[in-house]
Design goal:
415 residues; mainly beta; Tachylectin-2, Chain A; 2 domains; 5-stranded antiparallel sheet; 5-stranded mixed sheet; 7% helix; 36% strand; Beta-xylosidase; Glyco_hydro_beta-prop_sf
Length: 415
């Protein structure tokens, strides 16, 4: 879990981004590889940059084996907030992107007397695109107090190319005029995820005392709400963060009920400045069932999960396919989210290939190494540790031969 706080040890006085992990949402939490309660993983530069003093409101998403951290930043107290992005192989060690410049700044399209600026980012990843939701208190579509959430999407994690904007009439190419014309929800500091079970975005936002509100949006047009809003009881002072898979999709129910969507939120519950993180949640119940869902939808729900079913090989869902794995070490290299499933769900995920101990790895000049699996399909890997743990060796071939093979999904090692 990543969150914003102030703690001794940062480069400069100001907001830092902290990290801690736990096997339970109720804790206890600790720093990675340590009994310390948390660790600073990102903070102000102290060099006069746009994120010189404050880095806050983290949103982390994993796409194609890389973690991306979107964060709110301030150069100095009282200056407008902007949004930056950094990348990491492990979620701990970060490198700033976009030449150490902000990717979103205040639009200055109206005067709301709220000088906050552009910040509070929340990002999901869906079908090859990053979806960025953010606050801009100066945006044309903001409320009179500056509240409002604007959404962009792009295949570029820095949002400098191919950007589309959510408008009242659907997705449109970004222009200065439409960039903040339509707010998807009247809120500050919201978080969201995509539910493959509901085929809708779920926004968690705190507008009403004593509850977190869930708003559901259609991915084709965020102006449409396919379901009624739901209230999650619980006191809050700021937040929330919605518990998600690494790609910011909903998690599956542990009882494998495809019509049940667990919603858990973490938020501060007291104080100013906000403090005392708490956990609230509920399960959404829909009329869906695993039997009524197409195989592709079930595969999307279990993407990234390790599947365990009595009498069947361990498998990981990768790119909508079931990769059956012989070596336990490779299985744990690819997923931390393991779940026992009935044979019906296991077999509903389309078969992709079987990765057996010692499987051939093809290498070439330029392309990555790749396991040569069923039907000579190449499954590229991003780390030699996967090859080592599978007791495989690399056979070098020329580039043309490597490229002549059909390609399966890429396999990304969890550092």
């Amino acid at each position: 879990m990543w969150w914003c706080g102030q703690t001794p040890g940062g480069k400069v006085p100001g907001d830092d981004i902290l990290y801690a992990e736990s096997s339970s949402l109720n804790g206890p939490f600790h720093a990675r590889g340590s009994s310390a309660p948390h660790q600073i993983v990102f903070d102000g530069t102290g060099t006069g940059s746009f994120d010189n003093e404050h880095t806050c409101d983290p949103s982390v998403v994993r796409a194609n084996g890389t973690y991306y951290l979107y964060y709110a930043a301030e150069r100095h107290d009282g200056e407008p907030t902007t949004i930056g992005v950094a990348s990491s192989p492990d979620g701990i060690n970060w490198t700033r992107l976009h030449n150490d410049q902000p990717i979103v700044t205040a639009a200055n399209q109206q005067e709301t007397h709220n000088e906050y600026g552009a910040g509070q980012p929340s990002v999901t990843y869906l079908n090859g695109q990053f979806y960025l939701m953010f606050t801009d208190t100066t945006g044309a579509g903001a409320s009179s107090n500056g509240a409002g959430q604007f959404v962009w999407r792009s295949p570029d994690p820095t949002f400098q190319s191919g950007v589309e904007v959510s408008t009242a009439s659907g997705w449109q190419a970004k222009t200065d005029a439409n960039s903040r014309s339509f707010s998807v929800v009247n809120a500050f500091s919201a978080d969201w995820q995509y539910s493959d079970a509901l085929r809708a975005f779920v926004i968690a936002h705190d507008n009403t005392p004593g509850q977190t509100t869930l708003t559901f949006l259609s991915p084709d047009n965020l102006a449409r709400q396919p379901y009624a809003e739901v209230a999650v009881p619980g006191q809050w002072s700021e937040g929330p963060g919605i518990v998600s898979r690494p790609d910011k999709h909903s998690v599956v129910a542990r009882n494998n009920d495809c019509g049940r969507i667990p919603i858990d939120v973490i938020h501060s519950s007291t104080g100013s400045p906000p403090q005392q993180l708490t956990h609230d949640g509920l399960d959404l119940l829909s009329s869906n069932s695993c039997q009524s869902m197409p195989a592709g939808q079930i595969a999307a729900m279990y993407e990234g999960y390790g599947l365990q079913s009595s009498g069947l090989p361990a498998a990981v869902v990768v790119g909508g396919k079931r990769l059956q794995i012989q070596d336990t070490s490779v299985y744990t290299d690819l997923t931390r989210n393991r779940i026992s499933v009935p044979a019906s769900i296991y077999s509903a995920v389309p078969y992709g290939a079987s990765l057996r101990d010692g499987a051939t790895v093809l290498g070439a000049s330029g392309p990555p190494g790749a396991f040569q699996l069923d039907n000579n399909t190449l499954w590229p890997v991003n780390a030699p540790q996967l090859v080592t743990d599978n007791h495989s060796s690399i056979t070098m071939v020329d580039r043309a031969q490597w490229l002549s093979h059909p390609r399966g999904p890429s396999l990304f090692y969890l550092w």
